[in-house]
Design goal:
With 275 residues, the protein is an alpha+beta fold. Helices cover 46% and strands 19% of the residues. The chain is elongated and about 65 Å long. The two termini are 19 Å apart.
Length: 275
């Protein structure tokens, strides 16, 4: 994408003043796209220029080039800009580059309906984060919903315990990550480590209201076809919805579901510890 943005901006503002030297051309485009992504309504070029601290004339040239590339749409009546379909397509591809959710969606939706729970598919990304790339809801009247694209620290929640159980980070690395996590009810590092060890024994991680009050989660982490731990599956339910036996049954079903998915998900190999 950077090469595309370089061509867009170079064509629009090469040799022109108004783009801050520290930010650079690509940085200016990125600032504009981020602004439009969070804007509550379309914006005029002067408002955009003020928000990103650049000259209106240079901003206009960039907007014109972005419209030509379909990264931005313009309402010709009021001359206001919003994100275009080109930017949305790039964002969707960046969220799930291997199209993992499309591959397993039907099976996840069937399991969510059968168990009357919600199931989330998480992708582990560099810098100790994970992002929700797919979400299947059950058919109960009261439902739990999570936003696609939500990013969380890698070791938080039931998925985090499952990831820690599979990846076995050093105690020091795990402690440093744990100290940055936020919980909804008190959880000591010693208790957390014990829960990670439990996840190793059971094959799935558990979270009973520590991450989100009133919500319990059963989760597994699994590798792609390269053998790298790249994904997590979380079964999300209301606290008290099921007893221990049923929760354990769901956990074992999640394990089987992850085994089925693992052979179908292909990702580019990457060293997550060094990324």
């Amino acid at each position: 994408m950077e090469n595309v943005l370089n061509r867009v901006v170079t064509a629009a503002i090469e040799g022109k003043p108004g783009v801050t030297a520290k930010r650079g051309a690509v940085g200016s485009v990125a600032a504009i796209l981020r602004l439009l992504a969070v804007a509550d309504e379309p914006m005029g070029v002067n408002s955009i220029a003020r928000a990103v601290s650049m000259a209106p004339s240079s901003c206009f040239k960039i907007m014109k080039a972005l419209v030509a590339q379909d990264f931005v749409s313009i309402d010709e009546y009021n001359k206001r800009y919003s994100l275009g379909s080109g930017a949305i397509a790039v964002a969707q591809r960046a969220l799930d580059p291997a199209q993992a959710y499309a591959t397993v969606r039907s099976r996840l939706e069937g399991s969510a309906q059968t168990q009357s729970i919600a199931i989330g598919l998480w992708r582990i990304i560099p810098k100790s984060r994970m992002v929700l790339i797919g979400f299947a809801e059950g058919d109960s009247q009261m439902r739990i919903h999570m936003a696609i694209g939500q990013r969380l620290p890698m070791y938080v929640g039931a998925v985090g315990r499952a990831i820690a159980a599979r990846m076995s980070p050093s105690s020091q690395d795990l402690k440093e990550s744990f100290d940055k996590l936020r919980w909804q009810k008190p959880l000591s590092f010693r208790e957390y480590v014990a829960q990670v060890e439990q996840a190793k024994r059971l094959g799935y991680g558990l979270d009973a209201g520590y991450f989100a009050p009133g919500v319990s989660t059963v989760a597994v982490a699994f590798a792609d076809t390269f053998g790298q731990v790249r994904y997590g599956l979380s079964g999300i339910m209301f606290s008290g919805q099921y007893d221990y036996q049923m929760t354990d049954k769901i956990g074992r079903q999640m394990i089987e579901l992850s085994k089925w998915a693992a052979g179908r998900l292909i990702s580019q190999p990457v060293d997550l510890k060094r990324a």
